[in-house]
Design brief:
42% of the residues lie in helices and 26% in strands. The longest helix is centred in the middle third of the chain and has 20 residues.
Amino acid sequence: MEFRFKNSECNGGELVKIFNKDFETTSLSEEEYSDCRAGINCTIKETHVNNAFVFFQDYNNEKSSEGHTLQVIQNHPVFLLQFVIDGEVTFTSSGTVNKDFSLNKNTYNLFYIPASKYSYKYHNHQKRVLNLYFTESFLADKMDFGFIKDLKKYEQAKKKNQFYAFFNKGLVLNRQLKSILNEFLNCSFNGRTKQSYLESKLTELVLIALTSKDSEITANKLRKEEREALIKIENYIQTHLKEELSIEKLSVLAGFNTSKFKSLFKEVYGMPVFRYITSLRIEKAIRLISNHDYTITQASYEVGYKNPQHFTVAFKKKLGYLPSELINKGLYALLWLCG
């Protein structure tokens, strides 16, 4: 299989990638580079593990709000699971039937792409997008095709060599998927351990992403401004964990009444607002204790608990053991590897 990437913001011209059938490989291959025009901060990471190829793009054009285009030519049909972490992407096919698919920040979709030429148009000055490529045999090995709403339409598209989007307007990129993406992109292992870890994370990512039925229903129901308001609030929560976060305050910031805010938040993120906040606080506290040598008291204050005892109670209720055991028994790695 051959892929040709041509990026309008890079200096290196066309990038050609050659793969064995079904992306088969016995070893882990990684490459990271930054070769963009002046004024553009960019990082491109490529990861090739057995049966999958990941192409991650992180761009920030400080001098212009205009977007750019990535053109791709491939000579073999593949699946693309695309996650838009930041920015907005329009996916345009060029063939017998021209069709555009757009994804906004914090959304994702699964595409079937025949052997063809197509392009990604990035509309914002800042964008973070992860493209995961694999073939049908990868899906068949990991799961059945029960997630496909209309198998007949997919089979017709495949027969006619046409693009096909499995989810009409894309799905919501929830906290669980963001966590998996972050763990994949920031893996600290080496050698064979790293290869096994990345392969397992990609499997987890595909399974969770394609079985999130509730996210599809919610994404299709939400208006663009509602989705953007929830994304704004999620970002606010993550950056203000040390502060007091009330339903009333967050509802006002979102522009909803409290009832609508609580309902939409639970539908999109799969849990009530306060449970979500508690989860984020505990996760951050774990990182502070395990990676930065914070005491339990210091960490509890840093994530918004005025009384360390209240933090200990919440921690024990959620995880089933005391925060002191992170230090005494080295449970941090176990917690994160098991999700």
